[in-house]
Amino acid sequence: MNLLELLHSLLFDHTVRTVALGTATLGVVSGVLGSFAVLRKQSLLGDALSHAALPGVAIAYMLTQSKSPIVLMLGAGVAGILAILLLINITRQTRLKEDSVLGIVLSVFFGFGLLLLTFLQRNPDARQAGLNTFLFGQAATLLTRDVLTMAVFGGLAVLLVAVFWKEFKLLSFDREFGASLGLPMARIDILLTTLLVVAVVIGLQAVGVVLMSAMLVAPGAAARQWTDHLGRMTLLSALFGALAGVAGALLSSLGTGLSTGPVIVLCISIIVLFSLFLAPNRGLLWNYLRQWSNRSRLRTEAVLENIYLMSSQHADPRHPHAVTALEAVSGAGNVRRSLEELQRRGLATPHSDNKWALTMEGVRAAETHLQPANKDKK
Amino acid sequence: MSSAQIEIQLIGIVVAAACALPGVFLVLRGMAMMSDAISHTVLLGIVLGFLVTGDLESPWLMFGAAAMGLLTVSLTELLNRTRLVKQDAAIGLVFPALFSIAVILISRFARGVHLDTDAVLLGELAFAPFDRLMLLGALLPRSLVVMSIIAIVNLVCLLAFYKELKLATFDAGLAAALGFSPALIHYGLMGLVSITAVGAFDAVGSILVVAFMVAPAAAGYLLTDKLERMLLYSVGLGALGAVGGYWMAHLMDANIAGSMATVIGLLFLLCLLFAPQRGLLAVSARQRRQRWEFAQTMLTIHLLHHEGTPEAEVENRVDHLHDHLRWEPAFAQGVVQRADERGLVRLENGGLYLTDAGRGLATTMLADKR
């Protein structure tokens, strides 16, 4: 199947289009809220939240006997909020570190949910209790109705982020300053965290528990590399999320038996890797190049100064010196390459016998370089 | 009790013990979420091991899984060291990616073999007694043998490197200065966590391994300040949770591992509320007591300040405390009553007078301040 056919199926195949729309919506919502989670060092909160939603789903089903997505999502949301309240209070009031409490909340809530689900079905084997959906999601079976539900709730969450933009920004970067302005920072924190719960809940159906946590971390972490500006970062994060969602939906529609959730996560992970290496300024590749050029510039300057200092022992400041002697005083590093660089800039010229000397311009350049140091000596 | 029931409980106890030992150090070192990451990525190690050997029973699967656990740790650290993402984001990026690769590999190449992802995530303790192997002339449940070996390995490593682990956990700087390599200790510990996670997910599933590792250790941390006792309590609580969880699952006819995690969570909740020194009730009782004691000290200082001066008639009266110290009348009444019971003040016709003990307390407190 070529790219054109893929594009065609995206536009005209109803199932593929529905799934892609759903996963793109999820990508946008989790991208927007995930960028705040990444900035606030709450990357693992999404992981804990998505696991903690299971008992909520089970109890919602127990109470209503309904399997409608809205009821189950509501249950998941309530359980998520309860988990967060527990998490915050236990961390604040005991000496346990946050990651321990995260681990406990995540695993105990999940275990309790497993107990409830298997109890409801009177079947100790978890595999038949419909858990597969919860664990891995069922993006491939998303219906137009589901996508609409996701879009409504997700759209509302994104809209609220836009409305409370300034407050959320303050919360993420300078909470104390926000408090000093008289803003109710605790309540703003609760609002943002609730929106995070919304993002998790609408994602569960599509990509499942384990992979939902990636959707909250990865787009934000990738976007962070490209910009220092929160607005641009959030937009980029939403874009990356949507891109991974569409790409994952398309790739898994190729009929190779790949489930959508893991493919989406792999797509977004590739975007992260790409960003880590290639993003301008922060990217590892640029960073490495910058270090390398700095190092070679410093080395060239050191060689220039060394020739000058050695020549100042002689009457003529352009007295030639052997490369081996320069290597001895300059220490490690490729002295010849530095000399060639100096030659290119017209500061040094090669002589016979593997010797090099400064040009007049080189002497002047070395003098201006060394001037501050000489002044200090006087 | 049938022999299968006894065996399942035994497996639960051994899993709890094997998990609690490294779990204590994870909790103390603030690395609890690494257990979550490792327990997921071992799946990739198992899949790769299976694709190479083509045999689900091969012991190489264990090695592959443990190696993948260590790879998870080092990838996380590599990412963390670039300073491009923070520690928590590094964990959240690495393990879902590796886990996704595992899920995709299974669905592409390992279809039809007995390697389903939800068995890995959730375990199947109820079936553990059916999978047996011969050892020393006896037919024993495989999980029991494997987990016992892992528990013993954990115990031996712990005893052999107890001093180093303890020092590296509580004073990493001193440990490094004394020449213990922090990296070696870190990776050693993570290796144990990986092996334990691999062995345990067979029995209880990879998500609930986290409950066995973190919850008993955290509960133990609330109960005591001594490392030895914390280790003992964690193993004990984990084992108690395993047995209690088994019977709850038996009564409800529900998933055993989920039930065990639930009971372990309940035990943690009990410790959280009722731990003698650090429990929430003990802390709030202590805070309340300190508040009353502080108020009584304030009262004696206030009385001493005005004692023998002309305005004492006005100042040293119960109803005046509201104006002077901003105390609510009911609170002032309570403070005076408690101070009276402790013999710090005397109350005569609404006027307050210091006893010798009260004067002594006020003067020592004031002297301390100077």
Notable traits:
heterodimer, A: 378 residues, mainly alpha, 78% helix, B: mainly alpha, two-stranded antiparallel ribbon, 17 helices, 4 strands, elongated
Structural account:
The complex is a heterodimer of chains A (378) and B (370). Chain A has 378 residues and is mainly alpha-helical. In chain A, 78% of the residues lie in helices and 3% in strands. Chain A is elongated and about 100 Å long. Chain B has helices at 3-28, 32-53, 60-81, 87-109, 117-122, 142-160, 162-170, 172-177, 182-204, 206-223, 227-252, 256-274, 280-306, 312-315, 321-325, 329-341, 356-369; strands spanning 132-135, 138-141, 345-348, 351-354. In chain B, the strands form two sheets. Chain B has a two-stranded antiparallel ribbon with strand order 1-2. At the A-B interface, helix 3, helix 5, helix 6, helix 10 and helix 12 of A face helix 2, helix 4, helix 5, helix 10 and helix 11 of B.
The rounded distance between the terminal residues' Cα atoms of chain A is 77 Å
Secondary-structure class of chain B: mainly alpha
Q: For the report, how would you describe the main beta sheet of chain A?
A: 3 strands, antiparallel
How many individual helices of chain A? 16
* Low-pLDDT residue intervals, each spanning 5 or more residues of chain B: none
The succession of helices and strands of chain A, N to C, reads HHHHHHHHHHHHHEHHEEH
Shape of chain B: elongated
Question: How many strands of chain B?
Answer: 4
Averaging pLDDT over every residue of chain A, what do you get?
85
Residue-averaged pLDDT of chain B: 87
Q: Quote the beta fraction of chain A.
A: under 5%
Q: Which strand order do you get reading across the main beta sheet of chain A? A: 1-3-2
Largest sheet of chain B, in brief, is: 2 strands, antiparallel
Please report the number of helical segments of chain B. 17
* Global structural class of chain A: mainly alpha
| Low-confidence sequence ranges of chain A | none
Distance between the termini of chain B: 70 Å
Please, what is the oligomeric state?
heterodimer
Rg value of chain A: 30 Å
Elements of chain B, N to C (H/E) = HHHHHEEHHHHHHHHHHHEEH
The number of strands of chain A is 3
